Amino acid sequence: KQEVTQIPAALSVPEGENLVLNCSFTDSAIYNLQWFRQDPGKGLTSLLLIQSSQREQTSGRLNASLDKSSGRSTLYIAASQPGDSATYLCAVEKTTDSWGKLQFGAGTQVVVTP
Amino acid sequence: EAGVAQSPRYKIIEKRQSVAFWCNPISGHATLYWYQQILGQGPKLLIQFQNNGVVDDSQLPKDRFSAERLKGVDSTLKIQPAKLEDSAVYLCASSGSAYEQYFGPGTRLTVT
Question: What is the pLDDT of residue B98?
Answer without folding.
Answer: 63
